[in-house]
Design a protein that fits this description.
By secondary structure, the chain is of the alpha+beta class. Helix content is 32%, strand content 30%. The strands form two sheets. Strands 4-3-2-1-9-8-5 form a seven-stranded antiparallel sheet. Strands 6-7 form a two-stranded antiparallel sheet.
Length: 189
């Protein structure tokens, strides 16, 4: 029994944390995160330079007319029409933000606090529909209002979500009827 007593009585110091190794790992992790962030930023800039052929966004006319519909909610981004993952980042169209939409006889006024505003003229509006996703944002079926419009020879889908989702179908009807009446006026001329 004496060997067991000697083992239990032997003093052993606790392991000391190797601070140099721990700090090295933390510094390495921070450098890796910074590298990933930098690469993501470079990718965003590269995508913007690829889309540099897109003309400047139109601004609202001084007298756009009386508001037919108004909506407050979120702007979730714009993509090439029909390509829900091909995000457009040129001219700030890739920046998500709060939004105030106003539909008038002149077109669709998109006011985005903290991001660049733009205006979609009535003749550029193509259609509106309800969908479930757009570039990095997926919701329940019919959770997004998608407005398709033409700009500089490119068809663009812009995604909006109202604070009151029940408004979406009213917007789809109003934009599509505006587009239909514009088409009818154009053929009558």
């Amino acid at each position: 029994m004496t060997p067991f007593i000697q083992l239990a009585a032997e003093e052993k110091s606790a392991d000391v944390t190797d601070w140099a190794a721990r700090l090295g790992w933390v510094a390495g992790l921070l450098l890796f995160i910074a590298l990933v962030y930098w690469l993501m930023r470079q990718g965003w800039k590269w995508r913007g330079s690829l889309q540099s052929g897109l003309p400047e966004l139109p601004t609202a006319p001084e007298a756009p007319g009386e508001a037919k519909l108004e909506l407050r909610g979120r702007y979730h981004g714009s993509t090439t029409a029909g390509q829900w993952l091909d995000r457009i980042v040129a001219h700030g169209l890739g920046v998500r933000s709060r939004v105030e939409l106003t539909l008038t006889d002149a077109g669709l006024d998109v006011v985005r606090p903290g991001a660049s505003d733009f205006f979609v003229p009535r003749e550029a509006l193509r259609e509106a529909r309800l969908d479930k996703g757009i570039a990095g944002k997926v919701l329940a079926e019919g959770g997004l209002l998608i407005v398709t419009w033409a700009h500089g020879g490119t068809l663009i889908d812009s995604g909006f979500r109202s604070d009151h989702a029940a408004e979406h179908s009213t917007w789809v009807e109003a934009i599509n009827s505006t587009q239909n009446s514009h088409t009818t006026e154009g053929t009558a001329r």
